[in-house]
Amino acid sequence: MRYFLLILCFLIPSSTSAALVEVTTISSSVGVGETFTADVSLYTEGEMVNAVEGAVIVPVSMDVVEIRFSRSIVPYWIETPSESSPGQISFAGLLPGGYLNAGTDEVSKGNLFSLVLRAREEGVATLSVSPATSAYLNDGEGTSLSVQEGNATVEISEDVSGTGTTVTSDSESPEAFDIQMSEGTLFGTEGKMLVFVGIDKDSGIARYEIARSLIWIPEFMRSYVSVTSPAPLSPFDTYGLVWVRAVDTYENSTNAHFSPSGIFGYVPTIVLTILMCVLIAYLLIRKKAIITS
Description:
By secondary structure, the chain is mainly beta. The protein folds into 2 domains: about 160 residues, Sandwich (Immunoglobulin-like), CATH 2.60.40.680; about 110 residues, no CATH class. It has 2 helices and 19 strands. The longest helix is centred in the last third of the chain and has 26 residues.
């Protein structure tokens, strides 16, 4: 993962010190069974940063309910924040063009993502940033910044404190996105491929699905299967149409369509439409001839 991030940092030019990745919670105490939110934020402290990767360690006394992306400063995730192993939320994101803030106050923080957690056992628990967390300068060379870890301590008691957070469901669909065709080698995929990146600023993209057809068909007729980006381009795709659906955690979705062969991908649809019109016209004329005879 670090190898890919360094390569991508080299490819993103722009116009050594330390950054801070910090976990914060609204309240320092919650009751067993209560749900609360922890923000994971980046403070660049005056440096222009274009990539960050690392992990947040969640103690066994808490359960990860979900991961949210409201107000996230990261437009592209190389590794979308997820529980890569029990209690470890791994992430790696790009900030094309760079991101800069100063200070460590609430106004200055750049939110990476938020954890929705449920307190499970009483005691004092610490949400910690992994020492392996790294940030990279937007200097065209992928220079690594040292990262300070800001941890959050939460006291969990048997008594319900009433300081928990009510988490609302995500009712918004992911943002509109484009499908691009590329050729070469990218993240282990070789040859011609489809590349797409969906963004959902709340619950996040849960999965992508792809459907293929030689002709244009309505949504209810499309047969979708799971896919990841980049997706290899099959010989079948060259002659037809492709639809990709980005689905968030709450099953809201946004579709994009693409013709790998450009306007020629619509030729079968046009031909079929013309044939259908001719057939309908023929049947109508024949029916009229039968009636008049």
